[in-house]
TrEMBL record:
It comes from the Eukaryota. GO terms for molecular function: acid-amino acid ligase activity. Residues 1-23 are annotated as: Disordered. InterPro entries: GH3, GH3_C, GH3_M. Coiled coil: none annotated. Keywords: Ligase. The keyword Ligase applies. Residues 455-496 form the GH3 C-terminal domain. Belongs to the IAA-amido conjugating enzyme family. This is Uncharacterized protein. One of its GO terms (cellular component) is cytoplasm. Residues 368-439 form the GH3 middle domain.
């Protein structure tokens, strides 16, 4: 039977055994760490800034700012300007072309690679410098997520996670440094390959399948291994909700050859990558009963609840459903039979920022508690017309106000405008909690009006409610501004999902 879990009733466990097992004590330590970091935010921020400025003091960039070895906050604010990517691009280009002098970071912490952002600058993808020990901070943040979730749904260490993770292609800069997406960097790191912190890390997807850059082979292998271990799976995980929807689509299109592989114990010939074939071969075995089950469930016209029909012990979905990913919530509710969804972390190529300490709240109420040990954070008030002279510290933001996020990280980005607009929703201890509002300058505009992605999402949700009587829902959408007619207008393109297949 599928786990029946109502997201509206999930709350943290209030009773714990008098004596904790070693595993539970590890969780307790992580939770205590969160409490410690969020109780004296300003002191933690002071220490983090001093650490960053101390290690990067010799860098050309900070030297040009005339800090003269000062590591206090007041001098930093006066001497170091607020910048955008375009301001740093000349420094970044020199590093990419092979200049190994301490340009942005100190000589003891040289730039080790570039993380590629989904955004562009001047038609080029952004190259965001990072240092080797940044992975340690990201690993620390990742290790905090499951202890938080386990307060709400215990026993997750007794099963496996069906994750759909995908490494993307990478390039080398002229100076010989890798340039790749953030997650690809993590998947290829020793932190991921040799992860041993993990009773929550038992993943059905073999490493070779995750690292395979052929999209079909990677998805096929991960789906096949997830099916072979269907009764062990207690949670499904993708980074973004769109990837989980894409995985279910893939199952719809390929369940017949997948079932054949399971029936015969022989991997499909379309999977040609040697490492993938070897690792999948270690998992795949002939299983007539499982093949019959997959054919029975997937051949039905109605795919409502297909996730819990195929993976009956699934307790929740772990994926980001905030921001532009909110559009996939109705589709995931349909496919999962209403399983809870947890958007646990807020991160970007520049930095990992915070955690959702109420992971099973309604997606519209998701707020992230900023962890003050990750970087030095400042905020530009949006009601001040973006005036960068009015920046406020993390400990001094106000509930209800919107701010643009500015970070100083260990990799040499100093007072860098990330471009995210956040709204303060409350506090956990002394640490502010933020909801994501939108990306700066991500707007539709016809003539003088401005429509951001949140407004567009709400409009689509209201309009799509009319489709219910037709047994259809909006699966995905995109938009553009049209000025061919007067007055100008927006054109919205919908991709529809039929929730009931019409009989011929």
């Amino acid at each position: 039977m599928a786990a029946e879990t109502d997201a509206s009733t999930i709350g943290p466990a209030t009773r714990r055994p008098a004596s904790l097992s070693p595993a539970m004590e590890t969780d307790a330590e992580k939770l205590r760490f969160i409490e410690e970091m969020t109780k004296n935010v300003d002191a933690v921020q002071e220490r983090v800034l001093a650490e960053i400025l101390g290690r990067n003091a010799e860098s050309e960039y900070l030297t040009n700012c005339c800090l003269a070895g000062a590591i206090d906050r007041a001098t930093f604010r006066v001497k170091v300007p607020v910048v955008s990517y375009e301001d740093l691009q000349p420094y970044i280009r020199r590093i990419a072309e092979g200049d190994r002098s301490p340009i942005l970071s100190g000589s003891k912490h040289p730039i080790s690679e570039f993380l590629t952002s989904s955004g562009t600058s001047g038609g080029e993808r952004k190259l965001l410098p990072t240092v080797e020990d940044e992975l340690d901070r990201r690993k620390l943040m990742s290790s905090l997520a499951m202890p938080v979730i386990n307060q709400y749904i215990p026993g997750l260490d007794e099963g496996s996670v069906l994750c759909f993770f995908f490494a993307k292609s990478e390039t080398m800069t002229p100076g010989g440094l890798p340039a790749r997406p953030t997650l690809t960097s993590y998947y290829k790191s020793d932190h991921f390959k040799n992860r041993t912190d993990g009773r929550y890390k038992i993943c059905t997807s073999p490493l070779g399948a995750i690292l395979c850059e052929d999209a079909f082979q990677s998805m096929y292998a991960q789906m096949l291994c997830g099916l072979c271990q269907r009764n062990d799976v207690v949670r499904l995980c993708t980074v973004f909700a769109s990837a989980l929807v894409r995985a279910i689509y893939f199952l719809q299109q390929n369940w017949e050859p997948l079932a054949t592989d399971i029936e015969t114990g022989v991997l499909n010939h379309r999977v040609t990558d040697p490492s993938v074939r070897k690792e999948v071969g270690d998992i795949l075995g002939a299983d007539l009963e499982l093949a019959r089950c997959i054919r029975t469930e997937c051949s039905k016209e109605d795919w409502a609840g297909i996730i819990t029909r195929i993976w009956p012990n699934t307790k929740y979905l772990e994926t980001i459903v905030t921001g532009s990913m909110a559009q996939y919530i109705p589709t995931l509710n349909y496919y999962s039979g209403g399983l809870p969804m947890a958007s646990i972390a807020y991160a970007s190529s520049e930095c990992y920022f915070g955690l959702n300490l109420r992971p099973f709240c309604d997606p519209s109420e998701v707020s992230y508690t900023i962890m003050p040990n990750m970087a030095f954070f400042e905020f530009i008030p949006m009601d001040g017309n973006g005036d960068t002279s009015q920046l406020v510290d993390l400990a001094r933001v106000e509930v209800g106000r919107e701010y643009e996020l500015v970070i100083t990280n260990h990799s040499g980005l100093n007072r860098y405008r990330v471009g995210d607009i956040l709204r303060v929703t409350g506090f956990h201890n002394m640490a502010p909690q933020f909801s994501f509002v939108r990306r700066r300058n991500v707007l539709l505009s016809v003539e003088s009006d401005k429509t951001d992605e949140a407004e567009l999402q709400r409009a689509v949700e209201r309009a799509s409610s009319l489709l219910c009587t037709f047994d259809a829902a909006v699966l995905d959408y995109t938009s553009q501004a049209c000025t061919k007619s007067i007055p100008g207008h927006y054109v919205i393109y919908w991709e529809l999902l039929l929730t009931r297949v019409p009989t011929p």
